[in-house]
Amino acid sequence: MRKRTISIVTLGCPKNQVDSEHIASSLVSPEIMIAHSEQYADTVLINTCGFIHDAKEQSVDTILEYVKAKKEGKIRSLIVFGCLVERYRDELQLEIPEVDRWFGVKESNRIVHFLNSDSKLSAYRKYEMLSTPKHYAYLKISEGCDRKCSFCAIPFIRGKHISRPIDEILGEATELVRNGVRELIIIAQDTTYYGIDLYGKKMLPQLLDLLATESGAKWIRLHYAYPAGFPLELPEIIAKHDNICKYIDIPFQHVDNHILTSMKRFHTYEDMIYLIKLLRSTIPGVHIRT
C-alpha cells in the first residue's frame, strides 16, 4: 500500500519549529511519510504565527495558497494550527471554511490523534524529524509567559509560564546529542523565568550547568533572556563552561524609562547598564544581542 504523505509548513519563531518537530516525531510510522516541507502532500499542516501584523498576514496568505491547491486537487486535506488559530479561531473558521480542521497551540496531542488514532504525543523529538540543519537543534525549556508587557499578545496566546522538568529536558538533550546534534539552542518565551513554577525559584543557572556537564553538547547557546529578574549567578555559569557560548540574547526593547514603564517591562535603563557591565566583567569576550 502507498504511504500516506504529510507535509508540515512552519511559520514564525523557533518555538513553533519545536512544536512542529514534536508533532512530526509523534506521527512517524510505517504507514506515514512525513516531512517539514512546503511541497504538496495528501495532508498539509500549517503551523501559524499570530504575533505581529506581518506574521499574521503571512500566515493567512499561506493558508489561502494551500486552500487553492486543495481546490485544484493537489492536496486532499488541510489542517491549520498554532498561534493564529489560538487568537482568531472563530473568525478564521468563518472566513476560510475550506480548511478541514483548526487546532490551537495546546492541542498538539489532538492533532496527532486526529491524523493517526494509534499515536500520541511522544515525550521527545526524534533526531530525524528535526526541521533545522542536523548539527543544531532548538531546545524549548518552558511554555507560555507570566509577564504582561503592554505590547505583547504572547501570554494571551500561549498562556501562563509552564516549565519542563529538568530530567525531561536533559533526557531530550542527551538523546539529540547522541544522534548527531552538536549545538543546543535554549529557547522559551522567557528563559530566565525557568523553574519558578516547578521548583519555587529560578533554575536556569542550574539547568545550564547540568546541560553543559551531562548532555555531551559541543555548544550551548542561550536565547530570549528577559532582563528583569535576570539570575545574577547565570554569568558565572556561562563563564565556567567552555561549551556554553559566550553569547546571550536579551530583549532590552528600549532605553527610556518612561517608555519602559508604559511598556510594563519592569526594569529601568539603569538596570540594563548594570546587567551589561556584569556580563562583560564576568564573561570575557561576551557577545550581547539586544
Write structural notes for this entry.
Helices cover 39% and strands 19% of the residues. With 290 residues, it is of the alpha/beta class. The protein has 11 helices and 12 strands.
Protein structure class: alpha/beta
The rounded Rg comes to 20 Å
Tally of strands: 12
Query: Strand order within the widest sheet?
Result: 2-1-3-4-5
Mean pLDDT: 95
Flag low-confidence runs.
Answer: none
Provide the CATH topology of the largest domain.
Answer: pyruvate-formate lyase- activating enzyme
Largest sheet properties: 5 strands, parallel
What portion of residues is helical? 25-40%
Count of individual domains: 2
The amount of beta strand, in percent, is: 15-25%
CATH superfamily of the largest domain: tm_1862 like domain
CATH uppermost class of the largest domain: Alpha Beta
Helix-strand topology string: EHEEHEHEHEEHEHEHHEHEHHE
For the record, the CATH architecture of the largest domain stands as Alpha-Beta Horseshoe
Number of helices: 11
Approximate shape: globular
The N- and C-terminal alpha carbons lie at a distance of: 52 Å
SSE arrangement:
Layout: E1 4-10, H1 14-27, E2 32-36, E3 43-48, H2 53-71, E4 77-82, H3 83-95, E5 101-103, H4 108-115, E6 136-140, E7 142-143, H5 154-158, E8 162-163, H6 166-178, E9 183-187, H7 196-199, H8 204-214, E10 219-222, H9 234-240, E11 244-249, H10 257-262, H11 269-282, E12 287-289
Parallel strand pairs: 1-2, 1-3, 3-4, 4-5, 6-9, 9-10, 10-11, 11-12
Antiparallel strand pairs: 7-8
